[in-house]
Design brief:
mainly alpha; 88% helix; 156 residues
Amino acid sequence: MQPLDIVLIIAEIILFVILSILGIYLIISVKKLTKSVESIEKNVDELQKNAAPVLENAVVVSGNIKEITDSLKEQVEKVNGIIETVKDTTDSIVDFEQKTQKKIEYQLDETINYVSAFVKGVKTFWSALKGSSKRLPRNNHSKSYSPIADTSEEDN
């Protein structure tokens, strides 16, 4: 045999040994990968089993939340309606109060003016009455003449 044939045979043996080692390594890796996939499948199955009630609960909770928000919306609309009614009523009361106050103030001012004028008239009347009693002589028989008075008028 020739040295080249021996080198080729040795190279072939080394190549087959390497291929055998690679095959064994590949088989081991595939087994590990298979175990990992099986473990992942088990975990996914457990998650699915556990997730089903959680998802059902989430559906129930979301339905409850929807009902609550709908109810809140209705209540807010009712409260807004009540607030608008109270606001309108308050505005009406304020308008009524202002109108009534203006009318009463006007009538009160008029009444006060009339009473004030009446009181002034009575005071003027009394002062004129008192003043005329001071000017009139108490004795009607005696006449008093003023030096400024014109006598020609008395003769007529």
